[in-house]
Amino acid sequence: MAESSNTNAMVSGLKVSDILLPHPSLPNSMCLGPRSSESPAHLISCEANRIPFVNQNLDLTSWADCLRAWPNPPEGWVAWYNRVSKTHYATWETIGIADALSLSLSPLEKNENILKTIGYFWSDALNCFMFGHGPMTPTLLDVTMITGLDIASPSPSAFKLPKVPFTLSSKTECTSWGAYLKRYMKTKGPVTEREHTAFLNFWLEHFIFCGPSLAPTKNYLSLAYELAKGTRLGLGKLFLGEVYRSLQLMSVKLFSQRTVKTGGPWWFIQLWAQLYFQNQIPDFPPLTTCTFPDTDGREIRCTSYGQALYGLPGSRLIPKEAAGWFQIFFQGLSNPLFFPYTESENFENPVSFRLDSFADDASTRHLFSIMIRPCFLPVGMSTSNRITKPGYESYQPVVVARQLGLGQVPPHFFLHHLTASRAELPDILTGQRCYTFFDALAIPIPNNLCFTTTTDGFETWWTMWKTHAFRRALGPSLKQLDAEHDTTHQEQDGPEPKQADGSPFTFLPPAPVVLFCRNSPSLKQVIMQGQPISPKSASKNKASSGPVAPRASTQARKAVRKVAARKTLKRKAPVQDNLQGCDPSSLLTFDPESIEPAAPKASEEPSLEMVHGPLQRLKALLSSSVEILVENPEAIKGILDEIQPHLPVTLRVKLWPAATLSAFKSGVQSARQRITLRRAQLPLRADIAEKCQRLNEKKTALDAKTDTSANNAELETLRKELESLEEKVRMTKQLIQEKETFIARSREEAQGLTADLKTDLAEIRALSGQLVTGKDEDDEAEIGEVDRIRADALCALDEFLQKNFCVSY
């Protein structure tokens, strides 16, 4: 590992004197470098228009899905925390996650007005917010003070994490965190490694990194398993890298005018913003008076900045308040708070970093040296994650020196000139070199260091930035956020920036990728340049070093850029078209006249005749067993030193790792010993397998006896059936009783009706006896018969009279 660190230091060319600079007016204070003596014009040309608020429409509805992943504890989490902490709290303290785990005990109110406006000021090129008063960003100091996560241990790498020997349910099986908790939380018995891993996986995914899936995944399962085994890891660097990557993904979404659905640790960004902008929050309480719930739910005194900030009230989205925060970020503060940790002596945590004991605590000063040193932050802990692959984000605290108590100078962005500011990593070797790239750069911190927030030559640098980036009127932006914003006072855009000669300043067209130093070589190519070099080259590099942080050797960078230019010629054509008519010297980060004369043609084109013999010898050496090569790779190094100027870059990239095999000596030896032991233990494994088989059979029998879930379910079904039948019987008896009552009442009523009927019948009979019998028809017939006789007699008399007397009537 020492060899690797030395190699990286040689590649970087960065010295301690480049980073910690004497303060010009305060003898016990320091400034943070590297310092730049160049104009920021080229940087502004590339990156100013890529900051979202400069060139994007503001739409608060774009953030709805982004903030759904929020670290509030679901039902049952506190009980699970209590159960696991009884066994593993000491381990958590040892590996530096106890403080961050304690934050999961409390809900956190969301401040949507801050979160949905602050993102528009993020520059993913510099990994910082560009506010009106200057750049600011979450740093490793903020991660330590708010979460207590470890930043000193080796950074975790997705390529080196072990395979988990057991399976946990994913989103397809447990569709929510509540279902996941019920499945893996035990209520009795010891806390197994499996349960501990499931617990930490829950914590990492839901409370720390806040994945967008809102359900269990395997993205951090291997990391959780490694932590459960008690391995110390630089989780703080991974966390800050994920914060930067979430903000970068947000920038890409805003650029493409899509809804921001990335998820991520926005909770930390909220706490960070509330801490640094506390003077703009109404009724902001003294943090030392805030309380935090313990495991029993009782409010107790806070022991860290993180716990104190967790108790602050939140706010739902209100357009007027959101516009107010945007105005604060845009206009900046007249007296910004750059160093908010002046009351750290009132909090016990973090134990490992005590600002109040800075002069006497060597470990605190060691951590501070890590906080101010540039590095590559790890991101992506799963090779199968579709969104975040294993890679790195650049950490360059030089742009926010005042947040670290150091003087601010015009920043030189060394990492941009060295390599790509962010990238995916292709393999384990590149990842190992990446995360330890600056470890050899040990920065001694004076024990009498006095913190300051002053500047040295920074005002000119920032004035140019502010003139170019904040040239648009504020009013139209506020109107986009708040439709009721008063626009009676018409604001005018600032004058269009001009160059020194009076010509219009040229901004490159906005792009979703970083444009500044876009032709820098890949990190793997940079690492390849770090193999041992000849004394002549070393002396040349040494002679060319100046006050500005040096870069990799010119000849190697030219060779790498030629290859990179050929590969990206077609892809970069549109951007280059936009550069036509510009003065190249204003866009280059170096003086063209300083380029040394081109090397002879023979050194640029590989000579196969010169390298054939050494390559054959190298092939014979590489044909040896790996155990021999890790013991003595000097022969390989010697051959590569001899022939590397004559090899093409692509072949050097492939051959270089073979010269560093000694770095894997202990790993290869350990692996070989384990293989030998495994082979010797075959009988033991067979015996264990047999015993495990018998144990499984016994466990199956035991489960059959003790697992009464099926019988309990059947019993419960029968009980329900019995209750149903009993209810039916009760209802039937009630119906029978009602029918019997009805029948009895009917009989009583029938008897009464019978008596009434007899009485009425007797009365009817009596009245019937008084009636005249017969029918009117019969009597009418009888009368009619008599009347017929009368009529016949009368008729006979009339006929007689007419006939005999001719009497006419």
From TrEMBL:
Keywords: Coiled coil
Domain of life from the UniProt record: Eukaryota
Chain ranges of the Aminotransferase-like plant mobile domain: 96-416
UniProt feature, compositional bias: Low complexity: 534-545
Swiss-Prot/TrEMBL GO biological process terms: meristem maintenance
Stretches of the chain forming a coiled coil according to its record: 685-735
Region (Disordered): 483-504, 531-592
InterPro entries for this protein: AminoTfrase-like_pln_mobile, MAIN-like
Pfam families referenced in this protein's UniProt entry, alphabetically: PMD
Transmembrane segments: none
Biased amino acid composition, Basic and acidic residues: 483-499
Ranges of Basic residues composition bias in the record: 558-573
Protein name in UniProt: Aminotransferase-like plant mobile domain-containing protein
Record organism: Lolium multiflorum
